[in-house]
Amino acid sequence: MPTPIITDGTMDRLIKAPRVVLPEPQGLFRDRAARFDALAAHDDSGAYMRFLGQVCRGQAKAYAARPAHAVPEKAVANSRQYGMPPLSAHVTPRDIQWHADLRDVLAEVSAQGQANAQLAAVIAELTSALASDPAKIEAIADRIIAGIPEPDDGPLYPLIGAALQVYFSRLAASLTAEDVGASDVPTVCPCCGMRPTGSLVRINPDRMNYRYLVCALCMTEWNMERVKCTSCEEEKGVAYLTVEVEGRAPADVPIRAETCDECKTYLKIFMQEKDPNIDPIADDLNSLALDMLVDEKGYSRTGPNLLFYPGHD
């Protein structure tokens, strides 16, 4: 059964940490691929973890293949002055560049597709759409960003989501922290306006014990006080649930669900102190049992993982 975890968050105030940390996607995607590979060796869903590792290797290659196009100066100025996300994913037109990123990801996973009929069909569908019906790809991307994907999008979701991550993280990495103004909405990414996949309590010297929300789309991280709901920002009613792990005390488990009784939502929090190699995207998908347990208790998850469409594997 899930076990409540109590933390007080007081360590967050010991050092002055950066408010926003922009991504370093080349190393990030490569390291994430290695994390998926490591998880595959110790997980019943090893084949799926290995597939996602291959997707991340495709992301790393796509990221290195082309530079970011210029972010409009007006968008940066509005961010600095008004706190508007300079890469607002919901309104900013996407450059066709991201289709090339998708092609690179597809090329990287195509070898696995030869041995998996379902994956081969997905690769063929996306390749055909890129060539003859790009509007279909754009429509699915719009739904992913809006958080309203349709059931038929499910098999295509992780690969399109992976390409969108490459494109937006490349743009985010081209900015400076000063370009990302103080957002008026601390529960969404100050860079692109998307929700976080989860939060990560860091052990970096300049961020020791600070909690950072990790954007599902552009991989930007932004600081938010611990023991506070990442959806409604209430402190009252926040609790921590975890799945029991044999041989480990509840307080030593590195993945927890931060639940809020005020708005009945949750988001996972990942403790780097308990596992220095933990990755909020990879380990999120390796802990779906926790999602199921929290869902059974009536809490709704607030942030997506763009490498996974619920109900599809």
Give an overview in words:
- The protein is α+β, with helices and mostly antiparallel strands and about 325 residues long.
- The chain folds into 2 domains: about 130 residues, Alpha-Beta Complex (FdhE-like fold), CATH 3.90.1670; about 160 residues, FdhE-like domain (FdhE-like fold).
- The chain contains 9 helices and 8 strands.
- Strands 1, 2, 3, 4, 5, 6, 7 and 8 form an 8-stranded mixed β-sheet that branches.
- Strand 3 and strand 4 form a beta hairpin.
- Helix 1 runs antiparallel to helix 2.
- The longest helix has 20 residues.
- The radius of gyration is 19 Å and the shape is globular.
- It starts with 19 loop residues before the first strand and ends in a 12-residue tail after the last strand.
- About 45% of the residues are buried.
Concise account of the structure shown:
By secondary structure, the protein is an alpha+beta fold. 39% of the residues lie in helices and 11% in strands.
* Share in β-strands: 5-15%
| CATH topology-level fold name of the largest domain | FdhE-like fold
The overall number of domains is: 2
SSE pattern, N- to C-terminal: EHHHHHHHEEEEEEHHE
Query: N-to-C terminal Cα separation, in Å?
Result: 25 Å
Determine the number of helices (DSSP H or I, runs of at least 4 residues): 9
| Name of the CATH superfamily of the largest domain | FdhE-like domain
Largest sheet: 8 strands, mixed
CA radius of gyration:
19 Å
